[in-house]
Amino acid sequence: MIRREDSAVRPRTLAGAGGREARVWIERGSRVSFHTERPNGGGTAYWDGCSANNCVGAAAAPSQLCLRHASTAERLEHTRLAFGSSGRVPLLLSGVTITPELWDFVLSKASHDDRRFTAPLHAVGANFPFKLRLSDWTFEWSASLTGAVLEDGCEITGCTFTDHVDLDFVDFRNGPGYWRQCSFKRGLSVSYGHTSQHVAFVGCEIGADLTAQGFVADFHLDDCEVAGACDLSGSAFTLLSLSKSRIVGDLGLADLEALTVRAPGIELESASRLGPVRIKGAIDLSNAKFTNRILLDVAAEKVELSGATFRAGGRLHISSAEIALDRLLLNGPVTLSGRNGASVRSIRSADAAKLVLGSVDLSCCIFQGSHGLDSLVLEPTAVLPRSPRPLRTRRRCIADEYVWRRANARWRRSDWDLAQRDMSNADVAVELGAGEVAATYRLLRRSVESQANEPGAADFYYGEMEMRRLDRGAGGVERGILW
Ligand SMILES: [Zn+2]
The pTM is what? Predict the structure, then answer.
């Protein structure tokens, strides 16, 4: 939540994760002061104020006027100094309400045709009442827009920022903040950035750390490459999107709140820990690649890990969620421990040889097509479904048998209903053969035998025999049709 008051100059109060507040505002005294407050810290910056009425812009001319209120001659003199001083004199726009005309003037003086901005840009607490658009510019020095208000957001394409870019506390007010194919050579900071829309970095390269602590609203980092760490701690995201981004350093998610996290295809090169993090809805880590051995500590409604690769294995501590592990690829051992009713929906076509499943509900888990099931470890705390009550022996079975029988059984089909799950497994049922279910049982039997779990082995043996018998039956019918 963002609260904007009218009593001070451009004040906002952000309600971040866990109700922790951050504030930003400007005060006019003998000098202009710009304040930020965040949990465990804050800061103040000062500048000489413009002498025009009620203006909090930084004085940039001998007349003590800001660039907006200064005469054309004074504007020319300031831009000449800034763009000709090899970084010693910043282009001073802090606190200024920048008109489109002033911004065009600055850009026209920065460069005639090669779009190089050759001065540090100081636009702390500035106000851009228009959509800030830039394409193919190179900023040769740092750009600081801390606490600036971009009233209609921004659209920045193909720009290179040679030095650090500071967007902390920026209010992307009524339009999205959109950065496409930009390069931030020395890192980027968007901490306590906020918007009523969303802020998106798409196809960007961040040559050092990316810091977006305490961010409020939607944040996208899609198809990006971050050479350093990515710190998103304390943020309150409605949607966090990290699709297909590659992050070389750590991914910090401490105290983060999010309704939804979409990170399909994310690559984490050196992170050894993800979480603990609590997500209200789903977290999509499908086709994610974890290079380092990783501890994934997540509470969510759904955890999608289909097609994920664990190059050095890891541990998954997953609470509450329905988990998808289809097409999982494991180059090292992975242990899944569930809590608070976590359940696995499917490990179809997964690489199960290095997988250990404990304290997790497998009542509805489809095993079809998994590799290495004879080496899968099912700990005694893993819950498998029992065969339906009308049967005399209530053996432990697998959901694959339920699905097959629900679709194919001649008698008592309705007994084989996994009530707690919408059996939208029609696609599974069509492909699944009784012989395949029998083979799955055989492999699972071998795995529990090797763990000296005799009663479990007996159940799976029974299941295997039953499914073989049914397979022969089905085969007979098929042969009959062929004849
Ligand atoms: Zn002024």
Answer: 0.92
